[in-house]
Amino acid sequence: MSVATMAPAATISLSSAPTALYSPRAWAAIAIVVGVFACLPVLNLMFPVGHPLHVSSFAIGLIGKFICYAMAALALDLVWGYTGILSLGHGLFFALGGYAHGMYLMRAGKASADIVPDFMTFLSWKTYPWFWSFTEHFWYAMFLMLAVPGLLAFLFGYFAFRSRIKGVYFSIITQALTFAAMLLFFRNETGFGGNNGFTDFKKILGFDITSASTRAVLYWVSLSALLGALVLGRAITQSKLGRVLTAIRDSESRLRFLGYEPLGFKLFIWTLSAMLCAVAGALYVPQVGIINPGEMSTENSIEMVIWVATGGRGTLIGPIIGAGTINGLKTWFTSVFPEFWLYALGLIFVLVTIFLPQGIVGLVRKLSQRKGQTA
What we know:
Elements lengths: L2 H4 L17 H23 L10 H24 L9 H19 L9 H5 L15 H25 L5 H19 L11 E2 L3 E2 L2 E2 L3 H26 L2 H18 L4 H27 L1 E2 L6 H14 L5 H20 L4 H15 L3 H16 L1
Antiparallel strand pairs: 1-4, 2-3
């Protein structure tokens, strides 16, 4: 019998997030918040512009975008917050999911699926390249959305984890991979629209993509996907698998001594995280109306890390709060002082690192504990 089979689960790791964070009362609060957000598109559809209860289409699109960002942050939290793998390249998986969906959207709005887009006409291409085959079918685009980022993550992770690359070296490699992919997609001859990417989407599954009802459905699908990812993440982190993942984060060498091989566990959560991030990217594209290589920029991947750190890594809820908070500030700040946003973002990260090492969720926990002690 191996050492791994004899070692009790409780000895290999610290527990995951405190159960109080996901108590029945907490889940009730989550359900209320989800219900409130789910009602916003209804207010947009039921009440005309100018009515006190009307929610603008701009607000629906903006919140839908934030929901997709929150899902990407949650995906990153699974590998960084729970497994200790800091990725500076999750923007790549987000963008790949967006491009997979964008390929379908580019063909769905044309009178014939064989009519090539303008950027291909500019290159004197008469037909679609081979890797665009079957992308006029929604189901195939969804398959690509999961298969391409998942396969890339699996192959990259296998060789990186097998070589025991970790820490800052792994982070740098992920950043380099994302930057290389961005440069590749910027080239016109790759067949992905070059600098401009994909835009001017008109139809999705036969429906007008700009109509209020379609945007409402996209919003609800995004909200449902985020809730599903939260439930999935909760199930994983509170299982024996989750305890092994936190053991990898806390002391991978001790885990090896106990007889566990971390490769398979790291590879699983890394690939799953990439696929969840790709789903977020695929939902992001039809709501924003564009996807270009800029989504692969290293700055975007670093911003994801800041979302997770601000909300509180290793909590699942924290990254969602962090993504909403930082992007809300970004929306306001870039409309008032656009040239100073990057400085403000850097200052936020420094202040959070120094004064809120456990993020917003950590601060709430401390205040709750103090309140309980004084009561």
